[in-house]
Amino acid sequence: MKAILKSRLILPCAALAALGACVEGTGTYSGPNSVIATNTDKGKDEGPFQDSHPAVVYTPDGCQVWYIDDGVEAYADNRYDPVSGKPICNDAYPPGTVVGPYQSSNSGVTDRIPGPSGVPTVIPTE
Which stretches of sequence are listed as region Disordered (predicted)? Predict the structure, then answer.
């Protein structure tokens, strides 16, 4: 019985691991010296976004970050006031809030978000 249960677990786990290795432009984490982010697009869809309309994310300190998700890859950059050059920080939304749609139309992978169905996690922009 234990051998059957083991074989039923091993095959799905191996299949999942193989699928994880197939995600283009990625590698596995191999310790503290692993590069986990770069400033270049390494995916098969290299190039500019077809629709560069990033969302705004509020950081734990209340500052705003531009954010756009292109499937496996995501990009973020601090928002700065164009006049003063200082970061834009306020308490308009709680930390962790995402304001506006954040996925590019060519992402290829749709994110799943935690939480009860029907409860908005992303606040739409007007």
Answer: 101-126
Separation between Cα atoms, residue 73 and residue 57, nearest integer Å: 16
Distances in whole angstroms, Cα of residue 124 to Cα of each of 44, 60, 62, 102, 107: 30, 20, 19, 10, 19
Contact criterion met (CB below 8 Å) for 106 and 97: no
In this structure, which amino acid lies at residue 120? P
Q: Which residues of 10-20 are buried (b: 16+ CB within 10 A; e: fewer)?
A: eeeeeeeeeee
Closest CA to 99 of 58, 41, 49: 58
Place of tokens 């739409």: 124
d(CA 39, CA 43): 12
Binned average pLDDT, 10 residues per bin, the chain of 126 residues: 56 53 58 65 59 80 86 79 95 87 60 52 54
In the block, which residue shows the tokens 């509020």? Answer: 58
Which SS3 state, helix, strand or coil, does residue 13 take? helix
E strand spans, the chain: 55-58, 64-70, 73-78, 98-99, 122-123
Q: What is the C-alpha separation between 22 and 19, in angstroms, rounded?
A: 5
